[in-house]
Amino acid sequence: MRSLALPALMLAAGLLAAGCGTAPHGAPRASAYPRLSSEQSSDIAIHALGLVGTPYRYGGNTPDGGFDCSGLIGYVYGSRAGMAPPRTVALLSGFGEAVEEDELRTGDLVVFGGSRPTHAGIYVGGGRFVHAPSTGGTVRLDHLRSRYWAQQHASFRRP
């Protein structure tokens, strides 16, 4: 009987220690990504602006090969903040934390489409965002309040 007591005690201690390492049910979890510094956020916006004019290419994720919207975001965040955001717009819609439009900062994400996200871009300040819009187009700078974009359901994410 004594030979079973020590392993049982060790198992109980291990379970207690493991329980301390997890968040209580319902508690907020820390982001998998560190917060961006204000310098990184500005650098992201400046780099995104520098890519305006790059051709659109479905599945593209480099300046030489062209960009689609999520490829542009992944490239800019990877090269300027060392982050690898999700590769699809659907997953980008849950990346980071939600922010209100009046709280937007440079480097935040703009995701369009509501419950079925269809497009995303990088907020660069002054109500403007950089994005790779469509086949045959190029990466461009647009305003959230332009006739087209103001009619689209937008949400905002801060990595």
Summarize the structure.
The protein is of the alpha+beta class and 159 residues long.
Give a description of the structure:
The protein has 159 residues and is of the alpha+beta class. It has one domain (38-158): endopeptidase domain like (from Nostoc punctiforme) (endopeptidase fold (from Nostoc punctiforme)). It has helices spanning 2-20, 38-50, 69-81, 89-92; strands at 61-62, 66-67, 97-99, 109-112, 119-125, 128-131, 140-143, 154-158. The strands form two sheets. A six-stranded antiparallel beta sheet has the order 3-8-4-5-6-7, covered by helices on one side. Strands 1-2 form a two-stranded antiparallel sheet. β1 and β2 (66-67) form a beta hairpin. The longest helix has 19 residues, at 2-20. The protein is globular. This is Peptidoglycan endopeptidase. Residues 38-159 form the NlpC/P60 domain. One of its GO terms (molecular function) is cysteine-type peptidase activity.
- For this structure, the CATH topology is endopeptidase fold (from Nostoc punctiforme)
Calculate the terminal CA-CA distance, rounded to whole Å.
54 Å
CATH architecture descriptor text:
Alpha-Beta Complex
Question: Could you give the order of the helices and strands?
Answer: HHEEHHEEEEEE
- For the secondary structure, the number of strands is 8
Rg calculated over all Cα atoms:
21 Å
| Mean of pLDDT | 84
- CA-based shape: globular
Low-confidence segments, given as residue ranges, are 1-31
Strand content: 15-25%
Biggest β-sheet: strands ordered side by side in the sheet? 3-8-4-5-6-7
Major sheet = 6 strands, antiparallel
Number of helices, where a helix is a run of at least 4 consecutive DSSP H or I residues: 4
